[in-house]
Design goal:
Layout lengths: L1 H7 L5 E6 L2 E6 H4 L6 H7 L14 E3 L6 H10 L11 H10 L3 H7 L16 H4 L20 E12 L3 H4 L1 E2 L5 E6 H8 L3 E2 L11 E7 L4 H10 L3 E13 L8 E12 L1
Parallel strand pairs: 1-3
Antiparallel strand pairs: 1-2, 4-5, 4-6, 4-10, 6-8, 7-8, 9-10
């Protein structure tokens, strides 16, 4: 035990982690709060020099950086708390197995009939409710569900020639931007979110620098609807310029549009 304590003391009290490209900052006691887990073994039976690090000296773990936030939450509170409409439960169970968190893996496992229940073991609320519901009713939210706003924006452009019917040339949407709380954007868009422009901000901060890896607005809208978001506002601006000095040249129209979604 003395040897283990000596090795543990060589780690800083505040530990910086790079998990699959996502940066986390937490206490050493949080990482070692589950005895016999993988993180407990790494940070009590190893020294800092034995663990892999990234270019900035943060301890590197080659796992799913988005799902690690739920691993960390469990280590803090010893409770499973997932957002509403969470669709990566099986993947999270694999992460729990990797980090050797047997109790978390058990909580994430489906029942004998393949369905999931709440942490208390009681049937989910949807199973107890009447099958006859109004079309205006919304799905009840669990107490731990993340609410908030997401703004989706895009720039578009097209040209209109002198013969409007024949000469209109549309251009594809160049980029769809996402503005919201970082944790909310990652929950909704997951791996389709390009985070290269703002990689090191913690999950509880806000960003306006993310964009999607695809260029179809309907695909983004479908995803937002699937996880319980509803459009609450929209605004658009546009400008017109001529392709040349001659007023008879093609007109170039550019526009910027934002859609605000709420859950």
């Amino acid at each position: 035990m003395a040897e283990t304590g000596s090795q543990t003391s060589t780690f800083p009290e505040i530990v910086e982690l790079n998990v699959g490209g996502q940066v986390y900052v937490t206490r050493l006691e949080t990482l070692t709060s589950a005895p016999d887990s993988l993180l407990w073994a790494k940070f009590t039976h190893s020294s800092p020099g034995e663990l892999p690090k990234d270019s900035k000296g943060r301890f590197f773990i080659d796992r799913d950086g988005f799902l690690f936030r739920y691993i960390l939450d469990y280590l803090r509170d010893s409770e499973l708390s997932l957002p509403e409409f969470f669709k990566e439960r099986r993947r999270l169970q694999k992460e729990a197995d990797f980090f050797q968190l047997a109790e978390l893996s058990r909580l994430l496992a489906p029942g004998k009939d393949g369905s999931y229940t709440e942490d208390s073991g009681e049937p989910e609320e949807a199973e107890l409710s009447s099958p006859v519901t109004s079309s205006s009713d919304r799905t009840p939210r669990s107490p731990g569900a993340d609410s908030g706003y997401i703004t989706v924006g895009y720039r578009g452009s097209y040209t209109i020639g002198r013969d409007i019917q024949a000469d209109t040339k549309f251009r594809r949407v160049a980029r769809i931007t996402v503005c919201s709380k970082i944790s909310l954007a990652k929950e909704v868009f997951g791996e389709t979110l390009n985070e290269s422009r703002d990689p090191d901000r913690p999950p509880d901060r806000y960003t306006s620098r993310y964009y999607l890896k695809y260029n179809f607005l309907e695909q983004a809208f479908d995803r937002l609807a699937e996880v319980g978001f509803h459009m609450v506002a929209c605004n658009s601006t546009g400008t017109c310029s001529y392709g040349g000095n001659d007023q008879g040249d093609d007109k170039l129209w550019t526009s910027y549009t934002e859609y605000v979604f709420s859950r």
